Amino acid sequence: MAPPALPQEMNPAALQSSDSANEFPVIDLQGAHEEVVKQIREACIGWGGFQIVNHGVPPALMERMRQMAKEFFALPVEEKWKHSASSPTTTVDLFHGYGTKEFGTKGALDLGDQLRHKTWPLSARAYEQWPTYPASFRDTEEEYLQQQEKLCQHLMELISESLGLNPSYLNDFFGEDYQQTFLVNHYPPHPDPTCTVGIQKHSDFSGLTILMQNVEGLQFIKDGEWIMAKVIPDAYVINLGDQIEILTNGLYKSPEHRSLLNYAERFTIMSFASPPDAKVVGPMAEFVTKSRPIYKTRTYAQYRTEVMTIPHMAKALVADA
Ligand code: OGA
Ligand code: NI
Question: Locate the Fe2OG dioxygenase domain: which residues (predicted)?
Answer without folding.
Answer: 177-275
